[in-house]
Amino acid sequence: MAETYGTPLLVINLTVVDDAIDALTGRERPPGLELSYAAKAFANVAFFQHLARRDIGIDVCSLGEIVTAERAGIDANRLTLHGAGKTADELQAACDGRVGTIAVDGVEELERLGALARDGRCAAVLLRLNVGIEAHTHAFVRTGGAIEASARELFVHANTIRYRLRRIAETCGYDLANSRDRYVVQIAISLGRIGGEAS
Question: Which whole-number Å values give the CA distances from 73 to 67, 84, 102, 104, in the listed order?
Fold first, then answer.
């Protein structure tokens, strides 16, 4: 092939790609679980045109990857914009309907996105929060939700803990003083770690 096409040469066996997609999409999965290809692995128009025929979404991390998906004819609703430090142009793309979902990295980025949204129009938002839970367990969990003890262990004022808990509740609707909500957030964080390790 190198003699025919020259080098460097990248060859992708689409049968292997399709088999991998079939192995994932053919399994029973919980309602609401969607599968996506991470465009940061490899993105070009021809490959995206192939993926367009499959029942998976595409995670994009840049304006260039959005444009590549658009040129391949991928429906915007199948695109999720990820990535830290999104530019104003990338956030604007979410507001303009060029992606179906945007994974927002924290409150500051959410505020930047809100300032760009016109008439309240924007892609669906996934809000990714770093609530300070460490690899083992967070002081708030270790102390059974005791604010004063958590503050001492973290070397912060108790009002800092109260403020952060209030912001988490306002932002995502989970009250970490409630053991059930704390458990749900811990599971979400653990799943996020597992997903991060897998990619």
Answer: 10, 26, 19, 25
Q: Are 58 and 79 in contact (CB under 8 A)?
A: yes
**Token code pair at residue 174:** 């989970």
Domains of the chain: 1-128 (3.20.20.10), 131-199 (1.10.10.2840)
| Distance of alpha carbon 72 from alpha carbon 49, whole angstroms | 5
Number of Cβ within a 10 Å radius of residue 113: 21
Mean pLDDT split into 10-residue runs, the chain, 199 residues: 90 92 83 87 94 93 95 95 88 92 85 80 78 52 68 82 82 75 70 53
| Paired residues of 58 in beta bridges | 37, 79
Q: Which pTM does this prediction carry?
A: 0.63
Q: Is the separation of the CB atoms in 176 and 165 below 8 Å? A: yes
Hunting for tokens 């658009």 — which residue is that? 70
